[in-house]
Amino acid sequence: MPSSRKKPDSLLESLSEKLSKSSDLEQRSLCTAEHQVKLIYLKSVCDSATLNRFILTPFFETESEQSYENYIASFPGTTSSEDIKEILDYILQGRVGIVFNSGKIYLFEAVRVEAGPVQDAQTEVIVQGPSDSFNESLEVNMNLIRRRYQSHDLKAETTTVGNKSKTSVAIMYDQTRIDPDVLAEVKRRLEGISIDILQASAELDKYLSANKFRLFPTTIVTERPDRAVFNISEGKIVLLVDTAGYAVILPAIFNDFFTAMDDKLQVLPVGWFLKTIRYIGLMMTVTLPAFYVAFTSFNTEVWKVQIALLVSGSRATVPYPSFMEVILMLLMMEFLTEASLRLPKAIGPTATTVGGLILGTAATEAGLVSNIMIILVSAVAISNFVIPLNMMGFTIRVLKYGFIFLGTIYGLLGVVLGMVGVVMYLTGLRSFGKPYFRMFSVDRAKVSSSSKGERTDG
Amino acid sequence: MKKAACMILALILFLPLQGCRFKDIDLKLFVMAIGLDVSDDHPDKIKVTLKIAIPQGDPKKADEKVQILTQESDTIAEAVREMKSRVDKELDFGHCKAMIFGEKYAKTSLRDSLDWAMRRRDIQMMMYCAVGKPSAKEVLGVQPASERIPVNSLLLALSRDGTESPFIVPIFFYNLHRRFNETGLDPLLPVIEAKSEQEFEISTAYLFNKQKIVYLMNPEETRFYNLLTTKNLLTNFNVNYNGSRYAYNVEHSKASYKIKTPKDGEPYIEYKIKLVAELEENKTESIVSEQFLRDLGAAAEADLNQKIQKALEKVHKSGSDPYGWGLRYAATHWNNRTEFKEWADMSERLKFKVNSKVLVKYTGMIR
Amino acid sequence: MVKSKYFYYLFLINALINIINFVPRGLISHRFSGAMMSVLIAVLIGTLFIYLFVKGMSKFPQKGLPEILNENYPRIISSLMLLGHVVLWYTAGLITLLSFVDVSLRYISSDVPSYIIMIGFLVVVCLSIRLTSESIMYALEVLIVLNIPLIIYFLLKGLLNPYFSWDAVMQIVTYSWTMPSYESIAQATFIFSGYINLALFNRVFKNLKVRHFWLIGVMGFLILLISFLVPIGYQGTVGIERHVYPWFTTADALRTKTFIVERVLFMFYFTYLTLSLVSTIVHWHVALEFTKGIFVSKKQRTSPKRSIEWWIIIPFSILALLGLKMGQFTLDHLGLMYLDVRFVGEMFMILSVYFTYWLKRRRRRKT
Predict the structure, then answer these.
(1) For residue range A183-230, what is the model confidence (pLDDT) as tens digits?
(2) At what angle do helices C114-129 and C307-323 cross, to 10 degrees?
């Protein structure tokens, strides 16, 4: 290991060599009559105002090199290093290397963070309650959580993920409520991640899970600090990713995906009602299309005779079998959702109107689709959006095609098979060792008492 | 990736499974009712009539379209099979809600048709059964003006969902089958009489022994049957009191009976009936007083006791047991081997006692 | 590790599924010859068996039968015993599947070939039995809790129906003093034999404490009475013997007016399909784990590789597909015979657990 103390110039040379062909590399020599230092930094990641105020100006005001060195070293964010690789990492992070004549190098923190202000939540909107959301800065996000959870038990450990991106990831948890097994498991898996670039929290979620091919999300990705804090208090772990505006909460169980943050703000019966509504929505969106196929093509005797005649009459002009009809219309609906999602806000509503109203009406009038079908597709689409967390919403969107497939082959029987299958699949899933799906999931009081790894729920 | 490829492959392999016998709802014709008659020309052949609903595209339009198919054959199954070659779509019995037996057919035997319907998987137990007069075909041909779904008016009448007439005895298919097999309980069927092209009347009922029709209950007996077997029957009765006629409307009714075998004396069946009623029609102009209501009730009781007793005796004499007295006797006696013999022995000597209690509680909206 | 409450689910799943496994059929055929008495005796025997077995297994905390046998007996004996149990458990699941394929063909999917239905069942069942025992318990809980409200609804609907004949039920009750046969007792005890799954699931119970044995007895008694008597109340004491699936015909006799599905049959089917799939999963899971117990290598005491599971599942599935060739009557006989043999198997199981415990204690005292 080359000792930098002896040859300050060679150190600077090797650094500039590593950072060559970077137009934003700045190397400066500061000279007064008495003393002289050299600066090396990347101007794109350093804040020039900080640089001017805390490095340049004081330099010309101090008398000796020694007092300047003392001054620089007194900053909380300043470190000193001798390892060239480490120095390089610091510079890339946004620190200014200050090389003294003695050969000692100080790394002064002058990082410029381009993060917007704390904004309102966009993807998980609630009616009442706090509306701020995480932004792209790790510090700000930790601040948002700390402010809401003022306990010395709240721990925040930091590691980095990504060979090239070197993204810092903070693991936050309440040490009295956490299950140590889960924590160890999370740390083990975090270390095991070997990727070049980590940019989004959802990515982390993907790499953390044990089973790559799975249908249901086992971690919650949220942008709401209040949800993160609530889950920390329930003994869960929150992962905050720098540069990503979302937090990852784990372990997550099925029921968590059907909790909106304002459920707790409601009076109890209303809260229950809202939760029930969501589960009904879930059942409807998954099974309605499959039931339609089953009842129109296999078990026509299930319906009341009035409805049977109605469906039969409205299907009289439809030229293809019921499952094609369902799949066509559902695909149209998916296109609509996708299209209005990516469109600029000004055009979005237009697409919905054109697609939803005109296409729907025209298709029924042309006799290509039955009336009942249109009602059904809209019901399916609406009830899909009842699910508060998007990750689950997307899963459910995919799941219903599986049910349609089963309904096409087996009719009513297939739908039941699918339901049992999904329940079995869900109960077989584990989220970081925790059962994913149970009828009566862990009640709150027991979680806090089960501090030392003793899971009372068994 | 490999897994995904495998799954897609599996899905593609699965697709041909579906399809071969996949029949959409618009390729099915719903049979709403079956009628069974004896063939006019060949007395040993069965004439099967199917009433088929033709679906309407526009639910706002009120007109109904019906197709009536008739076919004669040796067996019902054969007749249905032959009818299949006369229509363009698959006949579906899943919605068949009524089975009408022609009067002539009912007089011979119902057992083979019951057997056929019981064996078929798609015919529901919730089918209403009735005897059609003069023939099943004519009853099925009736199209009331108020009807929007084929056969619906018939079903509404038979099920008490729509009109709640005290003269209609609703008999489900499973009930009929049970009555044909049970010892100590005999079948009965309501009679639907086709009055014209647009009107039918249901007010009487046929009693069967295990084989054939034995007795026709007139409207009053039918109403009494319903009163004695149904809780809270909606009906009204007339009563003569002090030389003028009054009508009261039954609000609550409850009837129960006990079979009594006193050691010294004849066995008898004692009916207890409790009615809570409301005065509905008063032909005199006098104002109704409390005492008057009480007297009216007493007069009604006496009237009912006598009439019901007569009706019960008539039914009993016919040899049919639609009330299930025999079954009740067996159910309350533990001497399993001899109970039915005992019942048969005492059946001839059986007397009836009716003990009714009529409480005329309200006078209506005026005194 | 799961809580003790899951034991009740194990009991409930068998108690509820009896309708599919021919228990009502067996009892109904003995309805005039001792079925009622055998119900009473079965309640006593069943509760006693549960008590004994739970006590017995609690001597071996968190151990399943394979471990218990393999540790205490020579390899050959333990393998043979396990094999015997595997056959019993496998047959239990097989009969549920086969009779449900038959029911599906009759009532729901007459258009789909039977082997395709069976493949569908097998895919769900075989993928599920490889899950951990805990997962299966969780699934069991979810599906039972979701279905119980529906079942209670059917029951209320069925018992409050005015066409339900209490006389017919009472008539059967008056046959209570007839001495029962071994078969009818063995058939009736099936209701209680959910406990026997504890032979495997004892692995995952954390200090199992079963309280309220009397509650299990009362529940079992009620369920037995309901599954035996309700069909009789609808189809009559004599007519019932003609029905192949007494409970499905009974469900067909019910209807709801308030829902878009009018016939209760379909909701009933829905409920019972989920329950019978779960029941098969539980039974076959036990069978699978026992089979794995046979192949445990004696020296290392490690369970065999997971890939071996497929080599067990494949013959399971092939046998089930071959089972489809059975006719209705063969399946019937097999089902009833299984119920009889099972009873002996259970007694043997309980005895063997106690004997093993005795053996173990004696050995420990010697050393």
Answers:
(1) 888 888 888 888 888 888 777 877 877 666 778 888 888 888 888 898
(2) 150
Digit-coded pLDDT (tens) for A348-388: 777 777 777 788 788 888 888 888 888 888 899 888 888 88
Residues in CB range of B258: below 8 A, 6 or more apart = B269, B270, B272
Predicted confidence band at C303 (pLDDT cuts at 50, 70, 90)? low
pLDDT in tens, A238-248: 998 888 888 88
List, in sequence order, the alpha helices (H) in A119-165: 138-148
Cβ-Cβ contacts under 8 Å, A316 against chain B: 26, 55, 57
Which residues does chain B have within 8 Å of residue A322's beta carbon, measured at their own beta carbons?
24-25
Contact: B53, A305; criterion CB under 8 Å: yes
Q: Domain residue spans in chain B? A: 26-217, 218-367
The residues with which B354 forms a beta bridge, in sequence order, are B271
For residue A318, what is the nearest residue in chain B, using CA coordinates?
A: B26
> Which among A80-84, A400-404, B146-150 has the top mean pLDDT?
A400-404
Strand partners, B73: B46
> Does residue C88 surpass a pLDDT of 80?
yes
ipTM for the predicted complex: 0.91
The pLDDT of residue A140 is above 80: yes
Among the partner residues A213, A312, A409, nearest to B55 by beta-carbon distance: A312
DSSP secondary structure letters along A101-130: TTS-EEEEE-B--------B-SSS--SSS-
For residue C225, CA distances in Å to B341, C35, C39 come to: 28, 10, 8
Smallest Cβ–Cβ distance between B126 and the set C106, C174, C255 belongs to: C255
| Distances A163 to A89, A111, A190, B291, C11 between C-alpha atoms, Å | 12, 20, 13, 102, 55
Q: Residue B202 in contact with residue B193, Cβ under 8 Å? A: yes
Per-residue confidence (pLDDT) for residue A444, from 0 to 100: 44
CB contact under 8 A, A298 and C108: yes
Q: Using CA atoms in the order A256, A257, A261, A265, what is the torsion angle rounded to 10 degrees?
A: -70
Taking CB atoms and an 8 Å limit, are B121 and C110 in contact across chains?
yes
Side-chain half-sphere CA neighbours of B48 within 13 A: 22
Instruction: Kindly calculate the radius of gyration of chain B based on its CA atoms and give it in whole angstroms.
Output: 26
* Residue C125 pLDDT class (50, 70, 90 cuts): very high
Q: Which residues of C touch A420 (CB under 8 A)?
A: 124, 128, 143, 273-274, 277-278
pLDDT in tens, B221-272: 999 999 999 888 888 888 888 888 888 899 899 999 999 888 888 899 999 9
- Whole-number Å distance between alpha carbons of B132 and B136: 5
Domains and CATH numbers, chain C: 5-366 (1.20.1740)
* Domain chopping of chain A, boundaries: 8-109, 138-251, 263-431
- How far is it, in rounded angstroms, from Cα A196 to Cα A202? 15
User: Band of the pLDDT at C44, cuts 50, 70, 90?
Assistant: very high
Query: What is the average per-residue pLDDT within B332-339?
Result: 86
B20, pLDDT greater than 80: no
Give the fold, CATH level 3, of B218-367.
GMP Synthetase; Chain A, domain 3 (3.30.300)
* A-chain residues near C142 (CB < 8 A): 423, 427, 437-439
Q: What is the pLDDT of residue B133?
A: 85
- The Cα–Cα gap between B169 and B160 comes to 9
Task: Look at residue B86 and give its three-state secondary structure.
Answer: coil
